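Task card 7
Instruction: Convert sequence to structure tokens.
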Amino acid sequence: MSQNDTQWRQQVDAWLVGPAANPPPGVTSNFTNGPSRHKYDIACQTICLTAVTTLVVIRVYTKSRVLKSLGWDDGKRVVSANVRDDELTVVIATSVLAWLGLIAFGVLIAISDEYGAGKHMWDITGADYVMYHKLKYAVYITYTLDILFTKASILLLYLRAFSPARSLRIVIHLFLWAHILCYIAGFFVAVFNCSPRDAIWNPYVRNIKCHDTRALNVASAVINVVSDFAILFIPILTVWNLKMQQKHKVRTMAIFATGLL
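Output:
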């Protein structure tokens, strides 16, 4: 090992046990009791998970027990070689998958709090910084899949709700497949963006080769914004064209308009 490599190794070892960044003048690093937003993060994740879990349980129960009409937007697929004897029912709900993705997201966020999320960089060690960015990498991948299933569930619901309108079904299909392709591309870019992969979370990795993802990020942002507005306005415009009393239209559109929140 050359002298330069030895010095570099010593520098990395010192950084791993020292602060991830130099503190401001007059400030001392505090690895044990430094300022943290951990409690706010946990509170936010708990509220979101509780609310979403309640809604998912209500939806699945209502459609399976009350309406008895689980569909692809809930995830019921029947694959049967023999309808009477060998019927195989596989429940792979896009809404349930999105819910499970949110749980995974919340768990990863909670774990990342233990490694520096919500803290100043000078209040965490270099080793914690590396672990935090590993978790951040996993969070991004989980988020990508979670949004994929969430929007797909909504668009599949629209296909069922507005099935008689052929032109509208075509539009929904276009948004659905554009959304799926966009997030699948984003997933693979996130996974295979850098070589070696350690470069994503370790600032001391050398000989890095990363792809330029700016064009994909812009395209993804555009598709995201357009699909968000489409998901909001498709049911509102459809309800507006229905033959029903004005007050009923307004009430129904108000329900869909809650998506603005």
